[in-house]
Amino acid sequence: MLELLLTFQSPGPILFHLGPLTFRWYGLLIAIAVLLGVTLSQFLAKRRQLNPDLIGDLALWLVVAAVPSARFYYVMFEWPKYSQRSWWEMLAIWQGGIAIHGAIIGGTIAVIIFARSQKVSLWQLTDVVVPSLALGQAIGRWGNFFNSEAFGDPTNLPWKLYIPEYMRPLAYKSFDYFHPTFLYESLWNLGVFTLLITLFFWGLKHPQRLKIGTLTFCYAIAYSSGRFWIEGLRTDSLMIGPLKIAQIVSLVLIGLGSLGLIWLYGSKQPLPDVIAPTSTS
Predict the structure, then answer these.
(1) How far apart (Å, rounded) are the C-alpha atoms in residues 235 and 210?
(2) Burial of 4 (0-12, 13-18, 19+ CB in 10 A)
(3) pTM for the full predicted model
(4) Structural domain harbouring 193
């Protein structure tokens, strides 16, 4: 009985049809993640004495930059598959196929430009955004579940994911059940979110001990550590030769996050910013 409760099977990617329109679970989950993320970041911004209206404006920048970047990143590394398809299929993110690291790259560029244009601290902005990012990733991973994608190796563990035969890699056609890596990453991201929120409110009580930028670097280290492990289980990783790109990027982010924390707490100097620092917290 317990094994049946822990066996996951997607009902399909379609939420419902309304005339000629098709509404998909993936799109709904992204919309929920964005709405919750903006609301949460605006709340956190108020606690950090930032104008919450900035977050609403930044959200538009992030959506415009991050979503296309996530798709471009994915298509770029899957070019042999997409090179023979129409340009419309390359844009069809509702069918799945976006990469969070592409979104992070596009989003980072957008935040830097936005912070400079608004004359606000880059690290103040990223510190109030990364908890929402972790929460949004936890929600968004369920889009992979509904699309029957981003799953792991075959498994006989009590918790497992049924994948329809037409969605299985050729090497695994004879297997029915796979590691639910979407679930692993969703739960991991919830843990990262909990860590960041806990640190955020602890920092409000101890502003001299939690330096600006700490949450951003903690996110980079915590998320990337889990992603490196989970990526090792997946069957559909983007590759450069024999190497999994997500694992390489995860190691880079862990390194950058570690260097950032060393800078903050070792040298005890504020981070380089797009504006002059206004606080030593």
Answers:
(1) 39
(2) exposed
(3) 0.90
(4) 20-267
